[in-house]
Structure of HTH-type transcriptional regulator CynR:
Amino acid sequence: MDIRHLQYFLKVAQLKSFTKAAQALYITQPTISKMIKSIEEELGVVLFNRLGKQVELTDAGQVMFIQAQDIVHSFQNLSFELDDLMNIKKGNIRIGLPPMIGSSFFPKVLGKFREQYPDVTIQLVEDGAKKVEADVENGGLDIGVVLSPTNEELFHSFSLVKEKLMLLVHPSHSLANREMVCLPELAQESFVFFREDFALHDRIIAECVQAGFQPHVTYESSQWDFISEMVAANLGIAFLPEPICRELDAERIRVLPLIEPIIPWHLIMIWRKDRYLSFAAREWIRFTQDLFV
């Protein structure tokens, strides 16, 4: 039995069909049937119950499935690492970013990285920090930028940005000429929020509840520029990170420091501790650490 036997077994188990597995592997059905039969004879167990055109794993098959996944995964890691050695500075990186960070300083970082590694392809996915973190966890992304704190047992991380949230109000708002505002003073206001898949959504609600009130949310969006335009149209107040606020038109929107409490906006870069990272991904982490740490 070799790694090919295990890969064929896993494909049959996943698709629950010899025919579909054969089609997916571009081999004939008799070939894959013969290979599964040879595994069963070698181990002295039956791995599949044949139920017409479909198959189901037996109890022995279930044990085999778990072990085979680990073995094939380890073999793939070995192949990836050897491939890195033969193809230095080539590869693909999947990076998740919150929309706010993507439009500010990140293009400059990407530009500098591309100058050094022109053959590395970077796939950027813009999403809320909660979705980005979930995709890094499940393997959909190699690396993600999320809001701190995160699961330290699951992820490696380092700090990118430490700023705070600022309050946005319309120039005609009663608070517009204040030097600073306390959060409890906003209990009766209408808010424009980020959507629920953004970590800031939960963070701001938690801070409001801690301050003694449940915020009244009238609008939600995934785009910071749309949120600021809603404030400029006098449709509510909002919180945005300080770097974003520096880009806003002071004639149309008043930006005020928030105190008691100050709500931090601390972004970190994360990647799984227990998952193989390609050379390109490891080099991206080293490169950005040199810039930010």
Notes: The chain has three domains: 3-86, 91-160+267-292, 162-265. The mean pLDDT is 88. The first helix runs from residue 3 to 15.
